[in-house]
Amino acid sequence: VQLVESGGGLVQPGGSLRLSCAASGFVFKNSDMKWLRQAPGKSLEWVSLITRGGGGTYYQHSVKGRFTISRDNTKNILYLQMNNLTSDDTAVYYCAKGAGLKPSSDVRGQGTPVTVSS
């Protein structure tokens, strides 16, 4: 099982980024997927989850209305569109396989850093 994130970087407050996660080694379309993040000095937290078929999406309260999770089951890719970013969104973002609106997962990627700063 392999999850490889990309798309992180430095962005100004109010800006946008789109994260991608390429999945391999398992049947992607059969798995709920989620994004987690860990800010400097803080615990790992759950950000968003999408069900296996893409019909259900869930968001942590602080990102609802600004972030959009999506997936392409034909390409085995998970996405996170992040808009109107603030400094509170600065963190390493991880793609993870697993169900539940919680930071635990079956497996997660190596992470991609997002820094929101002027």
Please give a structural write-up.
The structure is a single chain. This protein has 118 residues and is mostly beta strands. It has no helices and 11 strands. It has strands at 2-6, 9-11, 17-24, 33-38, 44-50, 57-59, 67-72, 77-82, 91-97, 107-108, 112-116. The strands form 2 sheets. Strands 2, 4, 5, 6, 9, 10 and 11 form a 7-stranded mixed beta sheet that branches. It has a 4-stranded antiparallel beta sheet with strand order 1-3-8-7, with no helix packed on it. Strand 5 (44-50) and strand 6 (57-59) form a beta hairpin. It is globular.
Q: What is the number of helices?
A: 0
Say how many strands there are: 11
Indicate the mean pLDDT: 96
The arrangement of helices and strands along the chain is EEEEEEEEEEE
Percent range for helical residues? under 10%
**Main sheet?**
7 strands, mixed
Low-confidence stretches: none
Task: Note the overall shape.
Answer: globular
User: Roughly what fraction of the amino acids lie in strands?
Assistant: over 45%
Alpha carbon gyration radius: 13 Å
- By secondary-structure content and strand pairing, the structural class works out as mainly beta
> What's the end-to-end separation, in Å?
37 Å
